[in-house]
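ARCHIVE CARD
Drawer: 12
Card no.: 0347
Subject: one protein chain, sequence and derived structure
Cross-reference: see card 0346
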Amino acid sequence: MHFQWMRDNNIDTAALQRFDPTGGEGPIRDAVTAHVRPAAEATGSRRAAVT
């Protein structure tokens, strides 16, 4: 839904901030990333992971 809204509003890139890869948020971060990738690809958006 968010990537569809972005496409509708001519926003073609999203950045996903990833903090401390060894921290306790690892499983949540990985789950979010797993959702972001296919959603971005489905709408033709570009994405960047900032680590």
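Annotation on reverse: The helical segments are 2-8, 26-43. Strands lie at 13-17, 46-50.
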